[in-house]
Design goal:
This protein is mainly α. About 65% of the residues lie in helices and about 5% in strands. A three-stranded antiparallel beta sheet has the order 1-3-2, with helices on one face. Strand 2 and strand 3 form a beta hairpin. One gap junction consists of a cluster of closely packed pairs of transmembrane channels, the connexons, through which materials of low MW diffuse from one cell to a neighboring cell.
């Protein structure tokens, strides 16, 4: 992605957010997105290559890896970050729609034009609902992914050794996960930051309702 475009999107989201929304954006960008891009991808880059089982049976290692890692942490986090950030872009699009409508009416009516949206970014009417629903959606997505991670990886942790007896493995074999401690630290870090984001979304939603 062009970083100039990305910076413009961030400034737009920051401009139309409340104080809690700006804190949420900082947590997502610094503690989730940057950690994901800079460190997490490298930690999981060798998860399949260094997943070793004490057998030479062809296909056994691949089957066991697929069983214990049905979906990669990295791909789940990528999907989660995409779904969480998209609603904020909808708010920007709604404000842009208001501004374009103002401009179009101003050109059509000329001197008889009466301003509909004195402040297009003010959270009133449809924009208020768009913003509130975006908060509910973001919190719901994070909660759903917390549940998915819990179901796939019990207690959000990975063991050092897993036992596998799926065909074509000849018997019960031991499989060893690469760097489980480091992966557990990153996983718990992402879980904690996700919980913080959920709390911030709930606080901001209550603030928005109370202010109205």
């Amino acid at each position: 992605m062009n970083w100039g475009v990305f910076e413009g999107l961030l400034s737009g989201v920051n401009k139309y957010s409340t104080a809690f929304g700006r804190i949420w954006l900082s947590v997502v960008f610094i503690f989730r997105l940057l950690v994901y891009l800079v460190a997490a991808e490298k930690v999981w880059s060798d998860d399949h290559k260094d997943f070793d089982c004490n057998t030479l049976q062809p296909g056994c290692t691949n089957v066991c890896f697929d069983h214990f890692f049905p979906v990669s942490h990295i791909r789940l986090w990528a999907l989660q970050l995409i779904l969480v950030t998209c609603p904020s872009l909808l708010v920007i699009m709604h404000v842009a729609y208001r501004e374009a409508k103002e401009q179009r009416l101003r050109e059509i009516k000329g001197d008889n034009y009466r301003c509909i949206y004195p402040n297009p970014g003010k959270k009133r009417g449809g924009l208020w609902w768009t913003y509130l629903l975006s908060l509910i959606f973001k919190a719901s997505v994070d909660v759903i992914f917390l549940y998915i991670f819990f179901r796939f990886y019990r207690n959000y942790t990975l063991p050092r050794v897993v036992k596998c007896e799926l065909p074509p493995c000849p018997n019960v074999v031991d499989c060893f996960i690469s760097r489980p401690t480091e992966k557990n630290i990153f996983t718990l870090f992402m879980v904690v930051t996700t919980c913080i984001c959920v709390v911030l979304n709930i606080i901001e939603a209550n603030y928005l309702i109370g202010k109205r």
